[in-house]
Amino acid sequence: MKIYDLSVPIDEGMPVYPGDPEVRVRVAHTYESHSWELRQLSMGSHTGTHVDAPSHMHHGAATLDELPLERFFGKSRIVRVSDPVWPEGRGLFFIESVDEPYFNRIAALRPPFVGGDLSEALERELLGIGIVTYTGLQGLDRLPAYTDFMFYGFPLRIAGGDGSPVRAVAVVED
Q1: How far apart are CA 25 and CA 156, in angstroms?
Q2: Measured on CA atoms in the order 58, 63, 67, 71, is the torsion positive or negative?
Q3: Using alpha carbons only, what angle is made at residue 75 by residues 69 and 79, rounded to the nearest 5 degrees?
């Protein structure tokens, strides 16, 4: 078994989507002052590697805390837009940019989630039909092609949450 961390580190001053809150990480308690260490985090819910709930782009749609945990993990596969067939019943991850013209092809497969370099228009359409999206992933190109893997990308359980940073992990069996 091989485990791949697909997450970017959360760090002070990291790049964010234009207009989103900047990331702030500060030491609030030190070993010297409190006998433990504690950091205060300030960031937007769509910082770094993150998952988007349908409510992110659709008023009244499902929020993170309303979605069952099964929507955030499962059998998955890397696909390329040029692949003649994409698998059904799996999460789909793209290592190349994917835009709106691929919506119908993705929607027909009804994957539980889709990830990669997705255009905003495609994300909006996928979220509109209840397909969870993952963005800000790194290292998808390290995963084997045409091989199923288990993906895990659990969000924080934010009440009314529209999105959340995740620790995205792929597990590939030998």
Answers
A1: 18
A2: positive
A3: 120
d(CA 54, CA 59): 8
Cβ atoms of residues 109 and 126 within 8 Å: no
How does pLDDT run across 23-54, given as a tens digit for each residue?
A: 999 999 999 999 999 999 999 999 999 999 99
Rounded Cα distance between 66 and 70, Å, is: 12
Can you give the three-state secondary structure of 116-169, one letter per residue?
EEECHHHHHHHHHCCCEEEECCCCHHHCCCCCCEEEECCECCCCCCCEEEECCE
What mean pLDDT comes out for the span 86-105?
Answer: 97
φ, ψ at 100 (rounded to 5°): -50, -35
CA 132 remoteness from chain centre: 8
Q: Which domains does the chain have, with CATH numbers?
A: 2-15+44-172 (3.50.30.50)
- Sequence-distant (≥ 6) Cβ neighbours of residue 43 within 8 angstroms: 10, 16, 21, 22, 23, 24, 165
